[in-house]
Design a protein that fits this description.
The protein has about 110 residues and is mainly α. The chain has 7 helices and no strands.
């Protein structure tokens, strides 16, 4: 399994660096730094649009990071009704037919 993962990572396109550079999205959201949060999102989407080897996996990676960021912020700030999920399971298991850079931006 580890050999498969190592081989897979060798073939994947370069990572979306702005997604993993500080300040992190969840910190910006948690601390109410809205302007910086918006700038960070813009830089992530710009980088995605400029990547020549953008794959569905990379778009999905950004989707998952964004979903986790919003869920974490909602939970931490007590703004979540646990009887009503923020994302439905189907959204988190999205299909490539409707997930794109454009839909993430919207």
């Amino acid at each position: 399994m580890l050999a498969y993962i190592a081989n897979l990572t060798d073939t994947l396109p370069s990572k979306i660096t702005s997604l993993y550079e500080p300040p992190y999205l969840f910190i910006l959201l948690e601390t109410g730094r809205w302007s910086e949060f918006e700038q960070k999102l813009e830089s992530i989407f710009t980088e995605m649009k400029l990547m020549k080897d953008m794959t569905f996996d990379r778009v999905y990676e950004v989707f998952i990071v964004l979903a986790a960021t919003f869920i974490q912020a909602a939970n931490k700030n007590g703004r979540r009704d646990h009887n009503q999920p923020i994302f439905e399971l189907e959204q988190l298991q999205c299909k490539s037919s409707f997930l794109s850079i454009k839909t993430l931006e919207e």
